[in-house]
From TrEMBL:
<feature type="active site" description="Proton acceptor">
    <location>
        <position position="312"/>
    </location>
</feature>
<keyword id="KW-0808">Transferase</keyword>
<dbReference type="InterPro" id="IPR023195">
    <property type="entry name" value="Nict_dMeBzImd_PRibTrfase_N"/>
</dbReference>
<comment type="function">
    <text>Catalyzes the synthesis of alpha-ribazole-5'-phosphate from nicotinate mononucleotide (NAMN) and 5,6-dimethylbenzimidazole (DMB).</text>
</comment>
<dbReference type="Pfam" id="PF02277">
    <property type="entry name" value="DBI_PRT"/>
</dbReference>
<protein>
    <recommendedName>
        <fullName>Nicotinate-nucleotide--dimethylbenzimidazole phosphoribosyltransferase</fullName>
        <ecNumber>2.4.2.21</ecNumber>
    </recommendedName>
</protein>
<keyword id="KW-0169">Cobalamin biosynthesis</keyword>
<dbReference type="InterPro" id="IPR017846">
    <property type="entry name" value="Nict_dMeBzImd_PRibTrfase_bact"/>
</dbReference>
<dbReference type="InterPro" id="IPR036087">
    <property type="entry name" value="Nict_dMeBzImd_PRibTrfase_sf"/>
</dbReference>
<keyword id="KW-0328">Glycosyltransferase</keyword>
<dbReference type="GO" id="GO:0008939">
    <property type="term" value="F:nicotinate-nucleotide-dimethylbenzimidazole phosphoribosyltransferase activity"/>
</dbReference>
<comment type="pathway">
    <text>Nucleoside biosynthesis; alpha-ribazole biosynthesis; alpha-ribazole from 5,6-dimethylbenzimidazole: step 1/2.</text>
</comment>
<dbReference type="GO" id="GO:0009236">
    <property type="term" value="P:cobalamin biosynthetic process"/>
</dbReference>
<comment type="similarity">
    <text>Belongs to the CobT family.</text>
</comment>
<dbReference type="InterPro" id="IPR003200">
    <property type="entry name" value="Nict_dMeBzImd_PRibTrfase"/>
</dbReference>
Amino acid sequence: MVVSVTGTAPAWDAAMEAELLRRIDGKTKPVGSLGAVETIAAAVARTRRSLTPRLEACDLTIFAADHGIAREGVSAYPQAVTRQMVLNFLAGGAAANVMSRALGVGFRVVDAGIAGEPIDHPALISRRIGPGTRSFLDGPAMTVAELDAALDAGRALGADGVADAVAFGEMGIGNTSAAALVAHKLTGTPLADLVGRGTGLADAGLERKRVTLEGAAARTAPVLDPRAALAEYGGFEVAMMAGAMLGGAAAGRVVLVDGFIAAVAALAAVAIDPAARGPMIFAHRSAERGHGAVLASLAAEPILDLGLRLGEGTGALLAWPIVKASAAMLSEMSSFETAGVSGPA
Ligand SMILES: O=C(O)c1ccc[n+]([C@@H]2O[C@H](COP(=O)([O-])O)[C@@H](O)[C@H]2O)c1
Ligand SMILES: Cc1cc2nc[nH]c2cc1C
């Protein structure tokens, strides 16, 4: 049964929930023996409002933008890498390109606000809010109007297309700093628990990053609402990704959440609209320091733990086959009843 989640979708009620659990336990396996695959299948069923969900297609959208804070020496790499990596995406040579091709996932890249002149390339989707954010050291990274434009552009991108599942990735030198501050202001988690090595800072660089970000955090109230946190400290790609997660979730798509920066975008999206949490599946636990705390705030148990800390949606891509297979388990696996297999003694 393929069910449109707009308009004619059946309500997900207590009877559907009970039937879902009955079907999972009725499959030809010891009860609970498919572990997290059963949890993932249930999440997909609720999102698709179907007891026989099919996940055929997944699309990855990478949001790229630059950050004023990158000029403060908070990253192991120069700001120019954002633009250079976008050219690499467009040439098909980055990790995300290779994995997308290997897994049959659609790929697109969005300029949310890359520094410098706009890149002129037919495959690049331009939703530029500006040539990067301002440094949030002594003022907001973006205006509220810029934030709303980024959220709106993201919502539209998350809702368009026909893919059953949508994965979002990001590219932005300095964005682990932005993400750490947004998470700090949304959750109250100590900043020291959220600031990590990002692209690979050594100990001295990590200490400088922490001190710089403590200074920026002191500028505003300890806790901010999601739009204020994003405008003060976010990035154009972080805000656009949050919007895309809201758009994808509202359209009934399974939303695959990648690493640390994506999880912070998810945190902001859920703070804006708690209904966005249900369709989210958390792909992996990043090696970035703050990811565990952000996942805990979202009560999220990620699928993979591979020591990844790349971004670009690579963790989400790698989790996709597991999510797809989980849905197939629910839709296609025979039951004790139909297969004539004896249930528990
Ligand atoms: O996804 C993650 O968990 C992750 C963890 C650390 C770094 N990154 C990537 O590295 C960049 C940000 O790192 P940094 O050190 O420049 O803040 C950005 O392009 C991210 O895609 C991504
Ligand atoms: C080379 C490079 C590739 C990336 N991809 C995502 N973030 C990145 C950061 C760097 C530095």
